[in-house]
Write a structure and sequence with these properties.
The protein has one domain. It has two helices and no strands. The termini are far apart. This is Small, acid-soluble spore protein, alpha/be.
Length: about 55
Amino acid sequence: MARNKVMDYKMKHYAARVQGVENLILGEKSDYGNLTSRQCGNFVRIALEKANELV
């Protein structure tokens, strides 16, 4: 069974760049352990804003 990706690594890097924390994650196999809960939560907000722009 194929697994749907919610956010691909490009979108995650976009969200990190918008927040100014892209330097805390590196590469396609990103380590998000360096981010706070709030920063991770902001990924959802940014992704939803981007999705709404496409509609």
